[in-house]
Amino acid sequence: MKFFSALFLLSCVLTSLSQAGEQRALQHTVITLTPAELPDLEGLPIDSLSVMVWSGERFMPVPFQLDEMDRLDMVWFADSGFERRGKKGVFDGADQLLLMLRDAASAAPKDDQPENGKIVAQVNLDTPEGIAHVFYVVQGNSQRDPRSYVSHDPNSGVTSTDHYVLTTDPDNELNWRHLGYSGYTGRADASLIDTLKMRMSGGVLFRFPRITLDNDNLRPVMTGFRIGPIRSVMHLETRVVFAGLPMMKLHVQAHRYANHYEAHSYAKIPSLYRSTLKQPQVSVSIDGNGLMGSLVRTARAGSLVAKVDGSMDASEREMVRRGLSSDESWILFDSRRGFALLTELDVPPELHGIPLGLVYQDDRQLSVRPEQYPGQLPNLGYELNGWPEQDELRFAVRLLFDQHFGEIEPTDYVALRTGRALKISVFYPQGDQ
Predict the structure, then answer these.
(1) Higher pLDDT, 326 or 379
(2) Gyration radius of the chain over CA positions
(3) Which secondary-structure segment (H or E) carries 400?
(4) 345 in a domain, yes or no?
(5) Average pLDDT, stretch 111-116?
(6) Omega into 109 within 30° of 0, i.e. cis?
(7) Residue 412 lies in a domain
(8) Per-residue confidence at 121, pLDDT binned at 50, 70, 90?
(9) pTM to 2 decimal places
(10) What gap in Å lies between CA 183 and CA 185, rounded to an integer?
């Protein structure tokens, strides 16, 4: 009897931990809504829209952000040279309305309206456990919530939120100097991350010798900056030059959120570059700073779990061999000291099929420039091999932070943390849905 009681107690504890982890993962979720999800709002003036929730007594404003997008689904900046998708100042095209799930509340009494303005859409978000969250998109209400989830100064390179502090080189966004995370129990004075690494390589005319460009060669120049309550966006451009030959212009947008970071990249591949550069390779990775004892799982590794100890073992080499794909690209990293990381590589459907490799190095001696600290402990990320059939290279890398993954199954955690586990439905007051 004692055995079964203990087993029942253990089951309750694990269930409680799992539920707590699920709620924490969901609370970090950023909700992105476009005219595809809100078709009845298409064509409305952006300045006339805001978002509110029901407090239990009245409607209250919450932080939100509306960004106009360009034809490449990047945030539009005039100096980028890209065409705006849709009309200026109007919610249309692929424009994005951003919300934090943590700000949602329960539904208001039927037919209630704010004191000023009118509800034009009710957004319902249901979790896998059946918990309902509701936002109201309102037109004609001037109330705004003053809170902002991100503080970012591009001149100093310092970003601070409730969860992390990131310092980058203000002259080169690719060079991360320091990342600290709230709740991390490792060395308080040490950065979790050595740096972000972006590398482009290929043979000019022939497979060998190969030329490699890294952060020090790819020096982006900021051509646009915008910060709002939900995210900051930097638009960066760099000219890619191989062997003295200008090949293409690379555009990178860096997005900072309350608890994650994204890098969206785009380049048009000229026919000269395609024919001149042989066996091209683009890699993006994060180099950890001495994170010994950490565990790593990947989408295609099955039951394999890598443990960072400064040397590659058979299971780690097998994990690298299995690689990743555009449909299975997640990597889970857990320091086991209060900092965890989920990474994903996102490419548009028309570019699926590019051979995708896993970057994973666990080596206390290996030097891979640029870096501040010796060793790759670990260096993990993505490697795109070859050219897509189209003349454009587009991809986004997402780095989602957390304390730990708890007792949640990896695939379930990925669905929760990215918001894909949420069921979204929209109700319009006039009765259309």
Answers:
(1) 379
(2) 23
(3) strand 392-402
(4) yes
(5) 95
(6) no
(7) no
(8) very high
(9) 0.92
(10) 6
Q: Are residues 161 and 275 in the same domain?
A: yes
Residues 187 and 309 in one domain: yes
φ, ψ at 18 (rounded to 5°) = -65, -45
Q: Return d(Cα 361, Cα 11) in angstroms, integer.
A: 37
- Indicate whether 1 belongs to any domain: no
The CATH number of residue 197's host domain is: 2.70.98.10
From CA 174, how far away is CA 370, in angstroms rounded? Answer: 10
The whole domain housing 129 covers 27-147+420-427
How long is the chain? 433
**Is residue 124 domain-shared with residue 197, that is, in the same domain?**
no
Which tokens hold the place of 104? 């949602």
Query: pLDDT tens across 20-78, in order?
Result: 567 778 889 999 999 999 999 999 999 999 999 999 999 999 999 999 999 999 999 99
Query: What pLDDT does 243 receive?
Result: 63
Domain match, 142 and 164 both = no
Are 137 and 164 in a shared domain? Answer: no
138 and 244 part of one domain = no
Domain tally, the chain: 2
Q: Has residue 69 been placed in a domain?
A: yes
Contacts of 91-94 spanning 24+ positions with Cβ under 8 A: 91/35, 91/38, 91/41, 91/42, 91/43, 91/44, 91/45, 91/46, 91/49, 91/66, 92/35, 92/42, 92/43, 93/35, 93/68, 93/69, 94/34, 94/35, 94/36, 94/69
Closest CA to 286 of 371, 405, 190: 371
CA distances to 72, 254, 295, 339 from 224, in Å? 16, 11, 37, 31
Residue range 221-233, pLDDT digits in tens: 999 999 999 999 9
The per-residue pLDDT for range 290-337, each reduced to its tens digit, is: 999 999 999 999 999 999 999 999 999 999 999 999 899 999 999 999
SS3 113: coil
- C-beta atoms surrounding 413 within 10 Å: 25
Shared-domain flag, residues 321 and 189? yes
Instruction: Find the angle CA(359)-CA(150)-CA(218) to the nearest 5 degrees.
Output: 40
